From TrEMBL:
The keyword Acetylation is annotated on this UniProt entry: no
Membrane-spanning residues: 12-32, 44-66, 87-105, 120-138, 250-270, 290-308
Record carries keyword Transmembrane helix: yes
Stored InterPro entries: Uncharacterised_FAM23-like_TM
Organism: Mola mola (Ocean sunfish)
Keywords: Membrane, Transmembrane, Transmembrane helix
Protein name (record): Uncharacterized protein
Length: 337
């Protein structure tokens, strides 16, 4: 391994480890401060919580994180058969889940004490989600740099056009024996394929100018990863923000908000281009988020913008339509897309 790749590997590992331990220490310290104030400035309770956080981070690092890193780097194929993104899944279980649990317990302690000791409750949630986004970005960049992750053996490097039955029928004039309906469907499919080929052909793509403004046309997939990752988590960020509203914060609705928000983070364990990601987004985010947001608006009025439940319902309907309804004959014959 070259020195440049080694430096990148060390940098990625340090960033992921920092994203693991920093939210835990920050949230546990704030929780220790809340517990100490509830117990009347009890320093013993404060240091007990801090010692527990240090013990948890040390145990997780030595018993889970480092062995998983070793297995991931040395035996990638074995790990890839279990999960395509084991590090992200481990981060969600080891960091995101306990952080959300501690935040809920901290909220419950303050509500029971009828006093809000933590004046900036939004900081812990933002820190957890930001570190989760950073881990997701690092993993996406590493996956893009290693497209053959977990794959051994021969690689297909040359593609050759294979004549299909439809091509043979078209070449031999085989449409003469087709019914008018079948002939129309064949013409429709051929026209769609031709238009799609023209739309995405290299000749129809705009060419980058070579003048002084040519740098504006440059694109880098690594920069696009940053944009896609933050957009990927905006819905979850908004859902967790609702839990910071005073009315929701002091009610039992804070529990389903954090539970559904945590379930939505499990989508990060699936590779972005995996076909299962669409179903995971529908089942773990859009559908439950829509139901919860409608309930929150009905109970607490507009604690969340209407834009987000509209987004959830449109994405859910689109998934149901394109996945299930388009297979029916009535939608297959006259499709809008």
């Amino acid at each position: 391994m070259s020195s440049g790749k080694t430096a990148k590997l060390v940098l990625y590992e340090l960033l992921q480890f920092a994203a693991l331990v920093v939210p835990l220490f920050v949230i546990m310290e704030r929780f220790a401060r809340v517990v100490g104030r509830v117990r009347g400035a009890d320093h013993t309770a404060y240091w007990l919580v801090v010692a527990a956080s240090v013990a948890y981070v040390t145990s997780v690092t030595l018993l889970v994180w480092l062995p998983l890193k070793y297995v991931t780097l040395r035996r990638r194929r074995f790990v890839s058969e279990i999960s395509r993104r084991p590090i992200v899944l481990a981060y969600i279980v080891l960091c995101t889940f306990p952080c959300f649990a501690i935040i809920i317990v901290s909220s419950k302690v303050q509500v029971d004490g009828d006093h809000q000791f933590d004046d900036f409750t939004e900081l812990p949630v933002s820190l957890v989600l930001f570190c989760l986004v950073c881990v997701d970005i690092i993993q996406r960049i590493r996956d893009s740099l290693e497209p053959d992750f977990g794959i051994t053996g021969p690689v297909l490097t040359h593609l050759q056009h294979v004549t299909t039955v439809t091509d043979q029928l078209h070449a031999d004039g085989g449409q003469n024996g087709l019914t008018p309906e079948a002939r129309n469907n064949h013409s429709t499919v051929s026209s769609r394929a031709a238009s799609t080929t023209y739309l995405y052909s290299p000749s129809t793509r705009p060419r980058a100018p070579s003048g002084p403004l040519g740098f504006l046309w440059r694109r880098d997939s690594r920069a696009e990863v940053f944009v896609e990752s933050f957009l990927f988590w905006l819905d979850t960020v908004e859902m967790v923000r609702v839990a910071g509203e005073p009315a929701v914060f002091r009610s039992a609705w804070v529990f389903p908000v954090y539970i559904l928000a945590f379930l939505s983070t499990l989508r990060a364990a699936i590779t972005p281009n995996n076909p299962l990601s669409s179903f995971a987004g529908f089942a773990l985010q859009d559908l439950p988020f829509f139901v919860l947001r409608v309930a929150l608006i009905a109970v607490f009025s507009f604690v969340t913008p209407v834009f987000y439940p509209l987004k959830n319902v449109l994405v859910s309907l689109a998934f149901i339509y394109f996945t299930f309804l388009t297979k029916l004959r009535i939608f297959r014959s006259q499709s809008m897309f």
